[in-house]
Amino acid sequence: MDAIILQVLNGLDKGSAYALIALGLTLIFGTLGVVNFAHGAIFMLGAFCAVTLQRILSLSYTVVDETRTDFLGNPLKVDVPYVEGWFGEATGQAIIEWSVPLAILFAIPVMLLIGFIMERGLIKHFYKRPHADQILVTFGLAIVLQELIKYFFGANPIPTPAPDAFTGSFDFGAMIGFAENAIIYPYWRMIYFVFALVIIGAVFAFLQFTTFGMVVRAGMADRETVGMLGINIDRKFTIMFGIAAAVAGLAGVMYTPINSPNYHMGMDFLVLSFVVVVVGGMGSLPGAVLAGFMLGILEAFASMNWIKDILPGIDQIIIYLVAIVILLTRPRGLMGRKGVMEE
């Protein structure tokens, strides 16, 4: 039982990332009808927002420390981060240490702006083009963004640690009545899962309970009729593209302590996220979230050693096998609208 619970936790961790990226993809496809192969790159840009803020907060100036000397007895020159000089040593160190959570505030306007520029500058020209054209141009954009990140940040992963208060693990088993040390799980992975639930809940609440969200949902169902009512639905869809970019970017920000950012991390998640969208149902937001967590849990169980001994490599293909079965038996996905992907 403890092994099962541990794999469920691992699956929820992976599923959180899949669900957040797939949610953004589905928002874009559902509102604009665009297959955005650059969405994984947006996830990557979010992660590098955290890296950028960490580097900004670590900028320093050199001072002479009279209390410390080198082996020749000369006073040492030490680098002092500007935030320590401005706010004091203790506060400055705390700000640097909490750079990943603070990067959420930094990433939101940055990712919204990136989303607006991407939609207005490129995507809008491909609304009425075939999906193949959309895939080619957005995939090309993803490669360009990937190479820009590689140029400015290098090819190696960049460690971006979580705050010290959340770097350890806690005894999840003891908390639910198991023996001590039966189920040990990292703090930050649980925080990521809770963060994903908050973001998903916020997106659904925004679409369900605000006037803007109601108009967007109406536009997703019948764009022409909403436009005839005098509503500038194109502007609202542009804002939704920015929101989708922000969701993927925040997913990338919070994922940095789990997987050190690198220039190809967007591509690593891109294909899996599209599989999640297809399994959940193209254009279905609940389907994308459900499929994300479901496939994350399946992948976690498939990675168990005794299963891999029976079926070597099953952990690498389980998601694609599920996708094949779903597409053969229910082409529109688990919660897709009737007629979508069934022609």
TrEMBL record:
One of its GO terms (biological process) is amino acid transport. Its main location: membrane. One of its GO terms (cellular component) is plasma membrane. The keyword Repeat does not apply. It holds the Pfam family BPD_transp_2. Keywords: Amino-acid transport, Cell membrane, Membrane, Transmembrane, Transmembrane helix, Transport. It comes from the Bacteria. The keyword Transport applies. It is found in: Cell membrane. The chain crosses the membrane at residues 16-35, 42-64, 102-123, 135-153, 165-184, 191-217, 237-258, 270-298, 310-328. CDD domains: TM_PBP1_LivH_like. PANTHER family: ABC TRANSPORTER ATP-BINDING PROTEIN, BRANCHED-CHAIN AMINO ACID TRANSPORT SYSTEM PERMEASE PROTEIN LIVH. This is Branched-chain amino acid ABC transporter permease. It comes from Psychromarinibacter sediminicola.
